[in-house]
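User: Can you predict the 3D structure for this chain?
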Amino acid sequence: MLHHIYIIYSLKIDKFYIGYTSDILEERIRRHNSNHSGFTSRTNDWVLVYSEVFNNKSDALKKEKEIKSWKSKARIQLLIDKKKYSIPLQAGRSQV
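Assistant: Here is the predicted structure, written as structure tokens:
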């Protein structure tokens, strides 16, 4: 079983969400964009901007916790940039 950590981004609310799943990643993102409760229910425009795959759950959860501890949009953006994913920009806004 593979374990994923991922970062999704909403242009509408200009926020990142960092998560973990052992499900199929595309299905997990689809659920974030469906009708549900929780942080990601505020909008339905979440796009995957970063992911990493781990062979064991403990390593994946450790990495998720590390990224969440950063509390810095700029630092998260640097991680994303290293993987060469792009984030849609709002008109008139520069990338963080």
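The chain is about 35% helix and 25% strand. The radius of gyration is 13 Å.
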